[in-house]
Design goal:
The structure holds two protein chains of two kinds. In chain A, 39% of the residues lie in helices and 28% in strands. In chain A, a hairpin with a 3-residue loop joins strand 4 and strand 5. In chain A, helix 2 runs parallel beside helix 4. By secondary structure, chain A is of the alpha/beta class. In chain A, strands 1, 2, 3, 4, 5 and 6 form a six-stranded mixed beta sheet that branches. Chain B is of the alpha+beta class. Classes of the chains: A alpha/beta, B alpha+beta.
């Protein structure tokens, strides 16, 4: 009887050991951890950059429009939400830590999207971006070298963030974040 | 099996009454056999029943889809697509297809994306799932589809982005579709296999070329179209950049049904039916724009044939395991039966022999029962996809796509918009029961209230 119980227990443990489709495995896609690390790094670099601080000292708060990430990744997609999240979090961190130095202006697409949902979300989208002229744009372009075969999938990411002067197209600040991700294909993959 | 066990118990009782010293050995053996059998049967039931439940719900939704009730199909698939069980990818692909056909693009994108994330991940089935899939039921593994299904999943995700004019993401998805067919190829024998396998999925090269044109990368577009022409010379006109440069309407037409997964050798060996040799050739479409035939002039070529692509399925380790299990299972059953017959013929069939026969046959039956191949598949995959780039005057048009060779199978849309700049892409799933005419833009999908269970 003890043996039977033992075998039954092993069988149940085996079944319990099955992870769900989203719990198991590893992915080469950028994750929430990358989002936090990358945006924290970029926000810290922008906040402490000498040229950015000099521009603030000269002109006062910098009026910045935030753009979604441009996807130049090989064989990867960046859904709309994630495309805004990467630059959006940099904005949130900077507006929290240096509220006096930056004035953030919503980009046109995001504004009109928000305005179309004003009633649903019960929020005020604020003044149109057309009434406020931004001086700088915070952009991000993600590129990667990727490959996949029967044994593994690899991506080497270079994520470039830039603060560009919209008047003269000069680069006020630029920073990049690099990360390599590899996932090994399992027996039943 | 239970009859054998019962008979065995009766005989063992008689035997041990006569020879008490053998009682321990027989008791141990009977406990072991019974424990193993019960354990396996419990495992099969607990796992198999759960799996069948979600799978059959998904299959019911597929029937609704083919009945033309997209709303009901979506309603059934939505909750299933959130369950992160072994059918998670499959149900999301089904939902993606149903939502795409109903032009519920946000839902389609989300569903295809959920499936894509798991398809692209590695080690999803590691640990307990691998062991369970090997020893209990292959259907316990998280289904990720055959390479051609994975490629189609990436293609449809790309198409959803392309329809929404999100060309960067469309490019990424089409590139990924090309990766998926490398699953067939051995990376150590790159040169020959890669070219051969990618040639069957020229559809992604074509869409990639068109996407690059929209992104203003004519150099890369020419490269993609050139590769498509090189791989499939019969598509030379469709892969001509000139056919796409001035095109302001793209019709993406899904035709026919993909291959069906079938089993052989007591359900242990998986294959696909029909084969290219047993099906007719793919027909040529006709396009009628505002009651006048549009000159396709070589553009109406089928881009892929999933029936042919499926035949390239690579033999996997799990196939070997199943085959070995069913062969050994058959051998054990035969050995058990043979042993019993031999002993019976000799006239010295005793209780131990009954135990041996029962154990051999039982073990063989269990091995055979657990060696059934996984026949889950994405039922919405078409046999082929036609890409029809049209150059139409800006404005609205009534467009019909028909297949005269297929008893005039057709689908009509009223009021399709041809833009003055850029392009508009329209997806059509050919089905005898959905001839239309459908009005553009399609009405949003109305989800029926859930059915009340009768007391």
């Amino acid at each position: 009887m003890a043996r039977f119980a033992c075998l039954l227990m092993i069988g149940l443990l085996l079944l319990a050991g099955c992870k769900s489709a989203t719990q198991g495995g590893t992915s080469t896609a950028l994750s929430g951890v990358d989002l936090v690390n990358m945006t924290s790094d970029m926000a810290a670099k922008i906040g402490s950059d000498a040229e950015v601080n000099a521009a603030y000292a000269k002109k006062g708060p910098l009026k910045i429009v935030v753009m979604p990430v441009v996807n130049n990744l090989r064989a990867e997609v960046i859904p709309r939400g994630a495309a805004y999240a990467f630059t959006g979090r940099v904005r949130v961190l900077l507006s929290r830590h240096a509220p006096d130095r930056f004035t953030w202006i919503m980009n046109r697409d995001a504004f009109y999207d928000l305005r179309s949902r004003e009633r649903e979300l019960q929020i005020d989208a604020g003044p149109s971006p057309d009434t406020v002229q931004p001086e700088y744009a915070l952009t991000a372009t993600f590129s990667s070298l990727g490959d996949e075969n029967i044994k593994r999938r690899e991506q080497f990411y270079v994520c470039v963030f830039e603060l560009t002067n919209l008047q003269d197209r000069t680069l006020l600040w630029s920073g990049s974040y690099e990360i390599q991700k590899t996932t090994v294909r399992g027996f039943l993959d | 099996m239970f009859c054998i066990g019962h008979r065995f118990s009766q005989m063992a009782q008689i035997y041990t009454d006569e020879k008490p010293h053998a009682k321990d050995a027989i008791t141990r053996l009977s406990y072991l056999c019974t424990s193993v059998l019960i354990c396996v049967i419990c495992g099969l039931f607990s796992a198999g029943c759960q799996q069948n439940k979600t799978y059959s719900k998904g299959s019911a939704a597929v029937r609704d889809y083919y009945d033309g009730d997209f709303a009901r199909a979506i309603q059934k698939l939505e909750p299933l697509s959130q369950k992160t069980d072994e059918n998670y990818v499959l149900n999301n692909l089904r939902l993606g297809s149903a939502a795409l056909t109903a032009y519920s693009l946000n839902e389609s994108e989300a569903a295809f994306l959920r499936a894509w994330e798991v398809i692209n991940a590695g080690g999803v089935n590691s640990g307990g799932r691998s062991v369970a899939a090997v020893w209990i039921d292959e259907k316990l593994k998280i289904w990720k589809g055959e390479p051609y299904e994975r490629a189609m999943a990436s293609f449809y995700l790309g198409l959803v982005y392309y329809i929404q004019r999100d060309y960067n993401n469309a490019r990424g998805a089409f590139e990924n579709a090309l990766f998926k067919l490398r699953d067939y190829a051995d990376p150590d024998k790159k040169s020959s296999d890669y070219a051969e396998q990618e040639s069957t999925f020229v559809l992604a090269h074509l869409m990639l070329g068109r996407t690059y044109l929209r992104l203003g990368r004519d150099d890369l577009a020419n490269e993609s179209f050139g590769l498509a022409r090189q791989l499939q010379p019969r598509l030379s006109q469709l892969a001509d950049p000139g056919a796409h440069e001035g095109s302001n309407v793209l019709l993406v037409v899904d035709f026919g049904y993909g291959p069906k997964k079938v089993t052989d050798y007591d359900g242990a060996i998986v294959g696909f039916a029909p084969t290219p040799a047993t099906v007719g050739r793919l027909p040529a479409p006709r396009v009628i724009v505002n009651d006048a035939e549009y000159p396709l002039a070589g553009l109406g070529e089928p881009t892929i044939d999933t029936i042919a692509m499926a035949q390239d399925r690579r033999w996997q380790s799990i196939d070997t395991i199943r085959t070995v299990k069913t062969t050994v299972g058959t051998g054990l059953i035969a050995a058990g039966a043979g042993y019993g017959i031999y002993k019976g013929a000799k006239g010295d069939f005793e209780a131990q022999d009954a135990a041996i026969v029962a154990a051999l046959i039982g073990a063989g039956a269990v091995l055979k029962a657990t060696s059934q191949a996984d026949t889950r598949q994405w039922e919405m995959v078409p046999r082929t996809v036609y890409l029809l780039p049209l150059k139409l005057p800006p404005g609205t048009h009534d467009i019909t796509v028909s297949f005269p060779e297929m008893s005039n199978l057709q689908q009509s849309w009223v009021g399709l918009v041809a833009p003055a700049e850029g392009d508009a892409t329209y997806y059509m799933r050919m089905n005898r029961w959905w001839p239309g005419p459908w009005q553009w833009p399609p009405a949003p999908v109305t989800i029926h209230p859930p059915e009340q269970k009768r007391e």
